[in-house]
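Try this one yourself first.
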């Protein structure tokens, strides 16, 4: 049992940390009370607002598990750990750019950078099936969010 706790501790710590940072990013972005966002023209495929919090909570847990695994192997995965950290910084900045600064264009640039970093990261870890599978739902959601962001941008310029 002690071995399992020690093995899982970094994944748990990073998951809690990522969820907390995600919540803080949403708070900084004022995403929960954005009358500006409510007034935007939206595509038919725009998800309902209630969907974002549970989806991002699950994704932040998966991101945290990935961070924990990278952290355990940090001496041999230094570059991919830095790349994954960079994409996470882009992730956290998106809400602030989109909601607080009300800048879908800046947010679009940010999410494009996030997507590129994430794809490169996944290419570099392609031989690590566990981490690759952890990141797949995240990549799919970020890809959808990129299309949604681009559509919101073009519909509202």
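Now uncover the answer:
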């Amino acid at each position: 049992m002690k071995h399992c706790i020690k093995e899982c501790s970094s994944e748990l710590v990073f998951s809690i940390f990522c969820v907390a940072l995600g919540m803080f990013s949403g708070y900084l972005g004022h995403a929960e009370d954005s009358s500006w966002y409510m007034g935007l023209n939206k595509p038919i495929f725009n998800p309902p607002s209630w969907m974002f919090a549970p989806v991002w909570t699950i994704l932040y847990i998966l991101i945290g598990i990935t961070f924990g695994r990278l952290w355990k192997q940090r001496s041999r995965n230094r570059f991919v750990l830095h790349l994954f950290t960079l994409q996470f910084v882009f992730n956290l900045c998106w809400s602030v750019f989109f909601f607080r600064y009300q800048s879908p264009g800046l947010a679009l640039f940010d999410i494009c950078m996030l997507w590129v970093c994430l794809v490169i990261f996944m290419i570099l870890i392609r031989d690590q099936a566990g981490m690759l599978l952890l990141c797949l739902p995240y990549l799919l959601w970020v890809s959808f969010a990129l299309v949604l962001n681009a559509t919101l941008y073009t519909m509202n310029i």
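Discussion: Residues 13-27+49-155 form one domain. The mean pLDDT is 92.
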